[in-house]
Amino acid sequence: LIACLGARGFEAFLAAIACLVIILTTLQHPWYLVKAFSASSPDEVISETIDWTDDKLLLMLDIWLTGCHLMLPIRWVVLWPVEIATILVYIGFAVVLGSHVELSRIAMNALLMSLLVLAAALGKRALELHERLAFAQLAVERTLRCEAEFKLSEMTEASTKPFDSRPKQSEIDVESIPATAYTAELFDLQKDDNAASQLQKLVALGVREHWLIRPEEL
Q: Phi/psi at 181 (nearest 5 deg)?
């Protein structure tokens, strides 16, 4: 499905499904179900043992909205229509079809639901910003490590050329050379005419890679 719709299309598809669930959840409420599909009064159709208050409906909508924010792998910029739909669907059903509570109670329910939606939206946005900053920091660290390894490789090649007395690769078996030979020669400053410069480069690399222990840290 992701391959067919793409990443953005898949996010929009999930948001549309979430909005549809909100409409169906509100419509399955006994009071609004009778109001929408029956000409009879809900008081005559609904049994007294059935819980048909708006409190249970609002709790179900809040549970669904919280689950969408925490579990769906979509960005907040695609999820905000679900937040708006949660508030407008309840207000639309309660005002257009008519609720069993007075208008002031409907307004209070809508206000409380709006505060819950706002809290969920702010939490989702803050979590996204934290994840993006963490990813950017990880990318920077990997870039620095790659650059440091590349410079170390260049320093190894430069330090081995003046005194490399090994036979040519065509004359020996490459697999017989130890894997640490080049690194050992890099730190063997006695063979290098410019040992001070080589040592300064190693110190700078150690500071950059955070493996150099300073005197004051001992």
A: -65, -45
The helix (H) or strand (E) run that includes residue 216 is none
pLDDT at 187: 57
Q: Which residue has the tokens 């690399």?
A: 205
pTM of the model: 0.59
Tokens 């150099």 -> residue: 212
Hey, what's the torsion of the CAs at 115, 117, 120, 124, to 10 degrees? -130
- The whole-angstrom separation of Cα 86 and Cα 80 is 10
Contact 212, 148 (CB under 8 A): no
**Token pair for 52:** 């048909």
Tell me the C-alpha distance between 34 and 71, whole Å.
33
Among residues 1, 5, 11, the alpha carbon closest in space to that of 77 is found at 11
Q: Lowest-pLDDT range, 73-77, 131-135, 195-199?
A: 195-199
